[in-house]
Amino acid sequence: LGCIRQIRPKSGQKWLYSLNTAKIRAKLAEKRGSTMIRYLRRDRWSPYVVGLGIGVLLTLLFVMGHEFGVSSGLARWGQMLQSAVSGREPTHLFGSLWKMLFVVGILLGSWIASRISDGERPATHTIWESAFGTSKLRRYGAAFVGGALLMFGARLADGCTSGHAICGAAQLSVVSWVFMMTLFAVAIPVSLLMYGRK
Amino acid sequence: MIGLFCGIIFGFLLRKAHVSRFDTIVSQLMLKDFTVMKVILTAVVVGSVGIYSLQGVGLVPTLHLSGTPLLYGALGGAIFGVGMSVAGYCPGTAIAALGDGSWDMVAGIGGMFFGTILFGELIGPVPCVQASTLASLFSLSPWMVIAALCLVWAAFALGMRRLENRRRPISA
Question: If both were cysteines, with which of A55, A77, A153, B51 could B76 make a disulfide (CB 3.0 to 4.6 Å apart)?
Fold first, then answer.
């Protein structure tokens, strides 16, 4: 309103008017920008919003002729390490260069999100510590064993949570739904047994 | 470069849902918190609608269906499930967790490399069969299956809302 009152006495002068609209536009942009940024900085988003984002990302990848998956990209990095150490190429290569970059991107993206978000960092392992104590060796050992099992299973099934449970399931692939069902059918009782007693 | 960019968005989203955290994933597996299911189901519903509708218009060149035999899928899922309980992550969220400051995932990713190499040495490539979809299995149109999925998702989201309203402590 303040802007309009200023124009009235000199309504014939065009430059003043345009100056004022520019000011209003700038103010609007500032307001919109700040709500956007406030949302970006918020520690936690609704899981439905994140799911929507992943679904849209998945669709865009398909339009570009790519597929979506983490474990094969990681497997390719593992094989690269293996051939660097042993000096011979594995007979069967997993994944592609594209997926290797995708994996690096996840690390970067999560790091960026973590830096700009308000919440606490680093993440805690409350449930683990209440069941198994704060021993670092035990946690790192479990992470190693768990990781080895994860990759062995993912290579056997040719996919992981992203490749099967999200990408495959969205394509209505039967083996992906079978994978997801057995994954939860096994992981839920095992977790309840491991962490649920205390 | 597109791969890197898409990865950044995916990692960003994972962190924003807190699925890059041990407590979120294990709470899901202990059925205390359903964040992981909410993310996966929403992504599947949105992705299936997006992929099949854009394929109908000819914008999606090919589907990428896995031809892994069902037995391998089930066996792999079972081993994967045990690993997910022990590590507290799946491969994608493990990488996101490292970016989020969970240093135990250095060991986790080391373990994943070990698992890959072990698999490559012991078993090698998995056989491939004709891929099938839920639509071709029941000889339905994919849109019937997607409509059913949407209904499942809506029922799940409504059920979650009721559950969370009931759990919230009522203060006077």
Answer: A153
